[in-house]
Amino acid sequence: MTLRSRLLREVRRTRASLLGQRPHTTSLQPAADLLDHDIAEIGGVKPYSEVPGPRELPLVGNAWRFLPYIGHFSIEHLDRVMWSLYNDYGKVVKVGGLVGHPDLVFVFDGDYIEKVFRREEVQPHRPSMPSLRYYKQHMRKDFFQDTPGLIGIHGPQWDEFRSKVQQVMLQQGAAKNYVAPLDQVASDFMARIDSLRDENQELPDNFLGEIYKWALESIGRVALDTRLGCLDDSISADSETHRILQSIHTFFTNVAEVELRAPFWRVWSTPAWKKYIGALDMFREVCMRYITEAMERLQLEGERRSEEDMSIVEKIIVKTSDPKIAAVLALDLLLVGVDTTSVSTSSFLYQLAKNPEKQEKLYGELKEVLPTPDTPLDVKKMERLSYLKACIKETLRMYPVIIGNGRSLQSEAIIGGYRIPKGAHVIFPHLVVSNLEEHFPAPERFLPERWLKSASCPFSGGRKIHPFVSLPFGYGRRTCIGRRFAEAELQILLSKIFRKYRVEYHYEDFRYKICPTYIPENPLKFRLIEREP
Question: Which is nearest to 211 in space by CA: 337, 339, 389?
Fold first, then answer.
């Protein structure tokens, strides 16, 4: 059967299904692959070889572009690489010839991104952390066995693990029971913020490290059902809290070296690899110990407590009868939840400091919902913070913590009129896509009003936002399983900061780098001026 006849058959089948008719033919290829507006004429599908992109050299392909001194693609500034690919080659770009890595196909169009996501399999494959996969499935296989978790894992094991935890993590209202505990963590951090300001009311250069402590303490409260003590004023050097903080610092210092640069750890144990593995082992041991303690408490108190009163940890233990599942989930949440919420917080502070009129509008909302700076948050109050939520969305649009995600194609697809083969890694560069004029008028401007239902934004005029051009938490079955909790953490802390302080920033504009999240390079020397109660 010719390519043209096969495509015609698929189009007839697709149209028939949309009209509610029974198709006369069947096919194993997903019909959604052919719903591309670039193929108005069936003969218009272009071969993979014609996908534009930087030229590959013999033997070294495009790998040389990432090498020090001779290359011009910087790992730490992949944001600039993505922008240059879009500007030079258009909406679909291939970077092939990467030694030891499948071809990368960058897709800079909301409609194309939507079609890839809509067609994804029950067990979608996402390009992810090979070092973490190696740690779980080889180095510590005796521990993880059939419970490898969600991060860096694909296929049936991932699907089985997610099915065991998603009902608890993603159920409606899952995060509501944690509003009060997270509010307490945020209040403790507010006290620490107040003590950190200098005589100029400015925060120290290393304030991002302090935000990490808050994020770690918040995740510990949710995922481990305990307070880790990260916000204590004095932490002794021989305490477990100190070791946890050192491990989180070690992990994020070395993860970029391990993940983004040449994988020499596959050949020999590099210094960065040893530190990376040591940090992972520390997290694993801590998670297992705290989960075991939670299980023991549950056994003592279980009969006296309803499921509604149980923590997430307790619910997972009750539903699975396996504390290791709760421990592995906690490990994954620690690995992906600390830096993401921390960097989001720093970018939010920066955006509101640089846009004082938006900050005053936010303050007006907060003052109405929270009569005093010490008023605790509850679910009903949080539901009224519509402008705060719009500010968070706009911050993550302009500076997404993860600048791109993607899928490893498990079957052939047609994207932008090109035939993309199975096995290619399709990358969705949301940093670029969510900052394009065609998707967001005046994309360089911080306009939270875009996200409000009214037509209050003068540039968008109430125009509906494409649902696939800003996906800070991913999409589909591989969406961030801790999303509801991350959103609650951000809303609670930021509402407290901006209700109590006016935030200013008087230094050079933020510069960002990949590490491996999109993190600011500048010291976070924000000036916090206390408002009248």
Answer: 339
